[in-house]
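Tutorial handout. Part one gives the primary structure; part two gives the three-dimensional structure as tokens.
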Amino acid sequence: MDSRTKRRLSRPELDALARRALGAGVLDHAELTDGFANAVWRLRLDDGREVVCKLSPPPELAQLSYERDLLRTEAAACELAAAAGVPVATLVKTGFDDPVLGGDYLMLAALDGVSWNAASVTPACEAGLRRELGRHLARLNAITGPVFGYPQAGITGSTWREAYLAMVDALLGDTVRYPTPLPAPADRIRSLLAAASPVLDEVTTPHLVHFDIWPGNVFLDLSGRPRIQAIIDHERAFWGDPLAEFITPTIFGDLHEDDPLVEGYREITPFDLTPSAHLRLDLYRAYLYLILLVENGPRQYPESEYARIRDPATTCLTTILNRLAA
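Part two.
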């Protein structure tokens, strides 16, 4: 989707960046437009390699509070995931505070598979892939860290409840800079989420959570029986409750016991969908829907494309707030 946060580089600028970063020039290039925040290019280099280049937004463009140093978050999460045996794109080169670019970039090995949202698979294969994805996510979520929240953005807490409320406060605080139509006043939303937040004290260890698992961020190998080739785009990752990982794969819906995603996850890490777990899921869904509504401020999506996200996010957030109020 088009976004004001996507940096525009010309062919000569991409060539100069590739030569500086990898010592090879660009023979061909194509922008990958599925993402929502960072500009992404697939580059064919003159030494035979194909890489994906991700660029941070222009430095003069303000973003949401939690979006500080997103590519640094992605690089760190990608390396941790790879070490845990989770399939990811190989990180080839990182460039932070590049003096010419005036920002950050990542170079990753290009994948030869197809994104799940562009693939046509049978219902049986779909179920098998969700089960496989569940196993991969369980391994990813088994990675633990020293603090809850977003360390790169300075939004953290010594407890998960403290970090979650800080994350919510930061997001609602962003609505001052970027006035956002919400289904309830910001103070009312903050109050309802805070009142339910004691349930988060059940989470005592920070776990790595990708928090952006949708079909466009999962690549498939279709050369034989369909399987997952890689999970990509770790930039929204935070340290928190593994249960939050189920939110984006079931966006605008609910998590059910018979979901193959749950079955696969439980093959690695057992968990129960207790009443308190469902309350935690509501808190994480509310947070995601807030992100989807507030992020349009700095990004300024095209209205015709954004409506298909904004409208269900508003409806679902309203439902959750009403449920919490009751």
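Part three, for discussion. The domain at 11-109 is CATH 3.30.200.20 (Phosphorylase Kinase; domain 1). DSSP finds nine helices and twelve strands in the chain.
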